[in-house]
Amino acid sequence: MIRKxxxxxxxxxxxxxxxxxxxxSTGEVDGEVVFNTSMTGYxxxxxxPSYRGQIVTMTYPMIGNYGVNDDDVESRKPQLSGFxxxxxxxxxxxxxxxxxxxxxxxxxxxxxxxxxxxRAIVRRIRSRGALKGILSTIDLDNDSxxxxxxxxxxxxxxxxxxxxVPEGSSTWDEKLHYLMxxxxxxxxxxxxxxxxxxxxxxxxxxxxxxxxxxxxxxxLSQRGNQVVVLPxxxxxxxxxxxxxxxxxxxxxxxxxxxxxYAISTIRELLGKKPIFGICLGHQLLALASGAKTFKLKxxxxxxxxxxxxxxxxxxxxxxxxxxxxxxxxxxxxxxxITHRNLNDNTIAGVRHTEYNAFSVQYHPEASAGPHDSSYLxxxxxxxx
Length: 384
Known about the structure:
- The chain has helices spanning 42-46, 101-107, 118-128, 142-151, 190-194, 214-222, 236-240, 260-269, 280-288, 375-383; strands spanning 7-12, 17-22, 28-36, 54-58, 62-63, 82-84, 87-88, 111-114, 131-136, 170-172, 204-209, 226-231, 246-249, 275-278, 293-309, 315-326, 335-341, 347-352, 357-360.
- Mean pLDDT is 92; it is low at 1-5 and 178-198.
- Helix 8 crosses helix 9.
- The protein has 2 domains: 7-151, Carbamoyl-phosphate synthase small subunit, N-terminal domain (Glucose Oxidase, domain 1); 161-383, Rossmann fold (3-Layer(aba) Sandwich).
- The chain has 10 helices and 19 strands.
- The chain is α/β, with parallel strands linked by helices and 384 residues long.
């Protein structure tokens, strides 16, 4: 039985309303309702800036059993609009944890709901496509909530990057707490694995931060690079003024097509330095090269997405989080497809045929795993 005063409701634009228990902050939020199929990594998911503007439903039935700690974060705070789970664990069982899931949600003012049928939500999204929604603990009138869901902005055509980019430049100095296959799956001692440029000045990589997950910068730094982070709104002149050896294009939230400033910057940078892009960075590289993007029916989000590496013939299990993809029919001759998502055959990676630039539509840096694709950071390292 739901206790009085703890009721929360999730309403979708198609008129469906789910009632459950509030496990986070009091309030009301809107966003695109999406689902993530990962069994672990909920803290990384909540703090991933790519989830800006979205209400995330976790498909795994119990979330929060290992609590929350200060290290496993991808940004300074949770970035999503709201959080939906079937059951939240009231017990945290991990020596590294210092807060329960409920404590963390309330500390950071995240509106969240538990006790709803997450399977039903996922089935509805999969059949009808991504839906706008409202999550509320203060307005419990079904008709009112559905009207608000229909009137909410959604993701298409919005520039959400400007809401998550850093205010200025910075130098990254945090290291990974563990070593993950940094030498192409060969057995090396850590000192050998990281000693890429011991006899010379370390390479300098400029990261254009469109909402970058911190584990990306950790991977780049762990390989012995000097990592400088610039806002994704920076110009090509500002990037090149850093005199980088390579340029990284980060992940980020929402629709890539409204980001004209980023597309223009990347177009100017092509051919100047080696470029590596992930997720939104992949889409922006494709747009800068002349391709188009489109909105997926319900997106790819989870830690179990199969991808075919066309060049090697191997299958990689990958972590993904995106609602848009590169349109294959619009692909220019200058872009070669290197990877495909095996669930729907969409493009999962490209390489530029004229310039030293490549990108993937998934997350090889995923701190919660899997780690099949960490070799991509080594490819970028060799290109510097």
